[in-house]
Amino acid sequence: MTELDKICTVLDKLTLDALTLMEEEIQIKLNVENAMCGGETHLAKSRYILGQNSVSSLQLPTENSPDFDAVTTVVGEDDEELFGQKARTLEVVKNEEQIDPVRWFGYLVPQDLYHSQSMFKQALQWIIRAVNVQTRLIETCGKIEQLKELKKELLVAK
Amino acid sequence: MALHAAIKGKLISVIGDEDTCVGFLLGGVGEINKNRHPNFLVVDKSTAVSEVEECFKRFMKRDDIDIILINQNIAEMIRHVIDGHTSPIPAVLEIPSKDHPYDASKDSILRRAKGMFNPDELM
User: Fold this and answer.
1) Is A60 domain-assigned?
2) CA angle B38, B39, B43 (to 5 degrees)
3) For B19, which of A25, A43, A93 is closest by C-beta distance?
């Protein structure tokens, strides 16, 4: 097997990988869409119960609000590594100082707001998976590009 | 800042319509740091494209942000900036919104990957 054949074989495998990753990413994004859609429906129900402006961006903290830390952050997994970069995973840190974001909308909120929160948390889980797949796709595409260059050089040398 | 980020994990920022921002902030991703900089931007009809672009660039420069979530219809407004971003960190993820279902043909990463499968490119 010549060097060119080996490159072509690897290119075939990487191309198949890229296609699989593309399909996987699209599927995950559709799952994100479903979760978000469910969350938005529950937001709409909460809005119907509490009033139009009671569940809106008006309740979100602004630059003048006291500073607060995110409850959900992203960390790199130690055991799983994607092409030199750690696979991402969600981390939920809850301190006593941090208040539940649901409290921004009041203390007696409808259950729908909690349902919405859990749907968006589910969407976040899908999003982390999508980001990991996207990172692998970018790396695979980068490798394909490099091998194509190498293949061109070999063909020119022939 | 880097040490701060290493201890507590990195942030997910959101550029989106009202429901997207409210939803993900309910999920707990929102933060306002000591410099009073939020990690989200609510985009409505009155938001200028330049404001979105500026915010996106600001998020890209922050080393405590690992993922930027942006609604696909808003990403369309600043497509040239997103296409120019090739670094894996922060990862930019285009997500659907209530009024605009996900369209894979518009996604920057998928378009770039699909471009490699042109018959001329495969030779």
Assistant:
1) no
2) 90
3) A43
Tally of domains in chain B: 1
Contacts of A64 in chain B (CB under 8 A): 36
Domain count, chain A: 1
Judged by CB atoms within 8 Å, which residues 86-115 of B form the interface with A? 88-89, 91, 93, 95-98, 101-102, 104, 107, 109-110, 112-114
What is the layout of strands, in order, in the sheet containing B91-95? Answer: B40-42, B11-16, B65-71, B91-95
* Segment A47-65, tens digit of pLDDT: 999 988 888 888 888 877 7
Check which CATH number belongs to the domain holding A86 and give it: 1.10.287
Interface membership of B119 toward A (CB under 8 Å): no
CATH code for the domain of B106: 3.40.50.10580
Alpha-carbon distance A99 to A76, whole Å? 25
B110 token code pair? 């998928």
**What is the ipTM metric for this complex?**
0.87
Nearest to B23 among A65, A116, A135 (CB): A116
Segments of chain A assigned E as strands: 72-82, 85-92
For the stretch A14-47, pLDDT in tens is: 999 999 999 999 999 999 999 999 999 999 999 9
- Under a CB-based contact definition with an 8 Å cutoff, are residues B68 and B91 in contact? yes
